[in-house]
Amino acid sequence: MKIGVYVCHCGGNISEVVDIKKVTSFAEKQGDVAIVRDNAHMCSDVGRNLVLEDIKEHNLDRIVVAACSPQFHGKTFMDIVEKAGLSPYVFEMANIREQCSWPHFDEPDLATRKARDLVNVSIAKVKLDESLERKTMPIGKRVLVIGAGIAGIQAALDLGDAGFEVHLVEKEPTIGGKMAQLSRTFPTEDCAACILSPKMADVPSNPNITLYTNSQVEKISGFLGNFEVTIHKKPTYVNENCVACGICEEKCPVKVPNEFEQGLTKRRAIYVPFEFAVPYRYLIDEDICIYLKDGKCGNCQKVCPHDAVDFTQKPEKIEIKVDTIIVATGYDIFDATEKKVYGFGTNKNVITSLEMERMIVHEAEGRATREIGKRIAFIQCVGSRDEQIGNEYCSRICCMYATKLSQLLKRGDPKKDVYVFYTDLRAFGKGFEEYYKRAQRTGVKFVRGRVAEVNEDSKTGKVILKVEDTLARQIIESEFDLVVLSVGMTPGAGTKQAADVLRMTRSPGGFLQEAHPKFKPVDTLNDGVFICGCAQGPKDIPDTVAQASAAAARAIRLMNKGVYAVEPITAVVDEDLCSGCATCVSVCPYDAVKTELKDDKRVAKVNEILCQGCGSCSAACPSGASQQHWFMNNQLRAMVGAALGEEEE
Amino acid sequence: MIKKVEITPENEKFLNKVNELSGQVVTLCEQCGTCSGGCPLVGEMDITPSQWMRLVQLGLKEVLDFKAVWVCASCFTCTVRCPRKIDVSKVAEALRQIILRKAIDYIDLKAIPKDELACLPQIALVSACRKFTG
User: Fold this and answer.
1) Are residue A394 and residue A537 in the same domain, yes or no?
2) Average of pLDDT values for B37-51?
3) What are the TM regions of this chain, as residue ranges (chain A) (predicted)?
């Protein structure tokens, strides 16, 4: 056995604390160690080639790299080892940066000792490493995209255009998501509907996309390359004959607040969600339809000239198989009734920013829904950056949409007094600062202070704000006609449900957790499952679209070759020791272990594709039959022994 | 006249002292002004609650020269509303403690005539003892 040990300086990150010389001279004294080298940047081309050439020249058969976290560069070096003709698993990484030089920067001697111990542990383990082989599995080209807001639409179109088979599932009766409700988009002020509707129209015309609206993903089982998906499709009670002539709507006697219009207008029980909905077809709201409730009415069916109303429709269960999944379930706006001091829900002159979006759309089309008034105040950070209601995060979009709405109002009518009360004005994106300046030039007044309370003048019905101008150090107590709450984003019911169905990890704010915040921003810890848009965290439209395309590209990367590599770090069962107790079956979070009869004996059997190598079964196994490749019991014992300074047996 | 102030290592000590006495991390204050806007007594104060938070953040001892913390009624409106969950009332109490620990007598209880003492409200008396005697 010939081991090569490489110690990285990390350009000073390690070497300024850890005494590299001491580590290398220690490594040199260890048995079977043939070569010890150090380098300023092991991850650089020079560093990598060092390993590559040494393996070839000196016939090394085991490699230890003492550098950063294996999460960071493990793959880099494994690829080099593999390139040199060895198994990538005869390699170990000692993390002497995150575990030595960074946390123990103030104790260089101890940091050096720990680095030496970690190298020793890695050497002990690498000696027992098996030459595991990466296996390849066939994979198809089918993708499930959950959620058809702008994120899901973009991902679906990218995948469809690239020739992949896309199944796009949307819980609402139309695609388009929240973006469809917006007036204009900052900072360019493009009309949201005008830029979104062509993209929406592209979806049904793309031959590779199958669209399921009014549908929810009920169950997902299986694994990368073999996900089995159950979709629950609610009936719309209107079939494909519908040409959206609208005769039915005129005869429908039921009226309810229109949710797309944030309740500013009413809709009937039979309705089209909005004028550029896709699919553009009527549907019946089963919760309020009189016929569906007690068999009376049926007006719509009587008047429909195309025989499109079909009350016999039943919910459908659709089963499909896909290879990868993209979760684009988006967000909900913060429920402003939770922030009681602002009086939303009790004071009719306190509205949310989404209502203001719709009001501006209607105003621009010359069919105003309600009086906006002369004096308008925007309150920022409602539901964001507020630990009293449990949301610590910044929603990122509210500063800019308030900047947009306020100047649209001010430019529409320069006599309006428009104030924005903010804590910090975050104009972080491209063109945002310039857009903020434009609002200031327009005459919108930005006041730095979080509004403490909103009261109603019982006589005039006007709204009175109390706030400190924290720059002028004055307490402002002023009347406004309308108060707009700049509500933030919350993960939303769809995102929570997707997380449950897919057993995904969620970040502290409740949004879906990415695999790595910098280098795997759209991957998740579930193989073959990607996330994009506001399901991952609050973001604006450009970031959402970029992330959606990124998720599509990551999914394509997995599927395009037709095969994918499977990690050989899986559980392995010693069938002689196994008593078939099935403890492993109950602890496995991936349903990867089953018991089966073998020579009349019940034993545990691991599905190597499903197994993620988490080690739960190995820890739980009462007889030590279940172990994990690359972390075998003898290896763990050798590592502990080395850490404790025991002599080799 | 605008006064110039100097920020020295001494200032850090004052900040740390307030942090320790109040059990709060005053530097967490993001100066949003929620405390001041909702304070029922802010109209009687010479500086706002968020201002004393700011002065403490910078470790400026002149915060002790203002009367605002003595006007504070400890009603906790600021505390239950602070979006950073800082107990602003406790910071006010810490500032009052720093002054009280100097143990300066502002009133001489013995000098109060007996008949006056008899008709003074007890709560005012107790409060005066706490605030004005060492």
Assistant:
1) no
2) 97
3) none
pLDDT score recorded for residue A646 = 67
Domains and their CATH numbers in chain B = 9-102 (1.10.1060.10), 104-134 (no CATH)
d(CA A601, CA A239): 56
pLDDT in tens, A535-584: 999 999 999 999 999 999 999 999 999 999 888 999 999 999 999 999 99
Measured between beta carbons, the chain A residues lying within 8 angstroms of B84 are: 387
For β-strands A226-233 and A215-223, DSSP reports them as antiparallel
* DSSP, res A101: I
Mark yes or no for CB contact A470/B38 under 8 Å.
no
Please report the ipTM that was assigned to this predicted complex: 0.89
- For chains A and B, what is the number of CB pairs under 8 angstroms? 68
Q: Check B85 against A452: CB less than 8 A apart.
A: no
Instruction: Quickly state the pLDDT bin for A356 (edges 50, 70, 90).
Output: very high
Question: Please, are residues B26 and B53 in contact by the beta-carbon 8 Å criterion?
Answer: yes
Q: How is residue A287 written in tokens? A: 């919760």
What's the pLDDT score for residue A647? 56
DSSP assignments along B41-64, one per residue: TGGG-SS-HHHHHHHHHTT-GGGG
Alpha-carbon distances, residue A488 vs A354, A376, A393 (angstroms): 10, 19, 9
The answer to whether residue A378 is domain-embedded is yes
Q: Is the pLDDT of residue A162 over 60?
A: yes
Q: Which of B36, B54, B71, B88 to mutate to test the interface with A (most CBs of A within 10 A)?
A: B36
Given a contact cutoff of 8 angstroms between Cβ atoms, the answer to whether A511 and A537 are in contact is yes
Q: Does the distance separating the beta carbons of A386 and B48 come in below 8 Å?
A: no
pLDDT at A649: 43
Q: Which residues does A194 contact at the CB level (< 8 Å), separation at least 6?
A: none
Residue A638 lies in a domain: no
If asked whether residues A129 and A9 sit together in one domain, one would say yes
CA distance A354 to A333: 8
Q: Calculate the dihedral angle through the C-alpha atoms of A284, A286, A291, A293, rounding to the nearest 10 degrees.
A: -170
